[in-house]
Amino acid sequence: MKARLFVLTLAILGGFYFVTTRMAPSGQAPAWLVHPFSTTASHPQAANVPVDMQMATAQAAPEQRLYPDEENNVAVYKKALPSVVNITSTIVTFDFFYGTVPEQGQGSGFILDKEGHILTNYHVVSNARTVEVTLYNKQQYKANVLLTDKAHDLALLKIDAKNLQPATLATSRGLEVGQMVYAIGNPFGLSGTMTRGIISSIRSIRGPMGNLISGAIQTDAAINPGNSGGPLLNSHGDVIGMNTMIDTGGGADQNAGIGFAIPIDSLNAALNDFSKYGKVLRPTLGISSGLPIGPDIASQLGLPAAYGVLIEHTVPGGPAAKAGIQGGTQQAYLGNTPIFIGGDLLVGINGNPVRSDQDITEIMDGYQAGQAVTVTVYRKKKRMDIKVVLGNAESSQGVQV
User: Fold this and answer.
1) Is 113 a catalytic residue?
2) Which of 191, 200, 214, 228 is catalytic?
3) Does the reported pTM lie above 0.90?
4) 128: which of 71, 89, 214, 331 fits an S-S bond (Cβ 3.0–4.6 Å)?
5) CATH number of 68-273
6) Residue 152 annotated to the active site
């Protein structure tokens, strides 16, 4: 009896196996072996997944569409990238045994015209024996250094190349704190890198070569070693400045959210000087420090005008000093900041109102060293027009404007 029951059980199992394997479509696993949650395209048995589960899976795949600000990011990058170059400079140093040791430094730059002129920072190519330029398409060229100007931290290079795409230069006038900016360059040797941020401030600073940059564009767009000389762009992909330095806050040599760019109008003025005179003749009034004045400060100090630049110091022997413009005579404090008061309050140049150092810089961009301008000041309560012959910033150490 037991033997019959055993044989009957084997027959039932064998029949079930035959039906579920031999009668299934060729190449398809039996239905009882299919995992109920398998949905991969490589498995035809995915058809056994419930319809509602298939719909959920299909809807989970996002469409590859960009938001408007992302589309603008891409457009800026595509427009500007062909105009941005990587610059490798090679200098020669000496080892312990006075043997020559080549060392390489890296920076960025941007193409000015189809003739192959490229603008970068002076400190990128300073003391270089050889300079090599790499385009966005990886083509490499030896570069000739046509101009170096330490006082303004700029250098003009030239390469012999065809089909170049020049950058579009905008203006640095009228820039607003908060507007979007982009930096493209070669940080840490990572070519073609774009970062985005805003204009954080516009202020005068000391550059990496000790030069004073009037109206420098401060940004929180990530700028790191290797970005020097590359373009700072507006939201149209046009150049508004040249990235030149970062403030690390005393930490490592990397971005801390504070970077600076030389305004493009200052660079254009220097290049115009070079094209006309073969050297840069940046004009200056010879004012080494000035305090921007607003209504509150004017009221505290009892000034006769609610705007202007209070002259704290003039450069000894400079244009302003020669013309009789006076600096401060008494030290005071504005909060915790020491200032000098008692000097002339500068309110205009050739009829143009002056409210800040940036205004002076922008006005100076329209003149040449050696030209005369009429400077309007208040001396105590008296309004005066004083004729000043502009000097050359290159020969006036420490000159601000």
Assistant:
1) no
2) 228
3) no
4) 89
5) 2.40.10.120
6) no
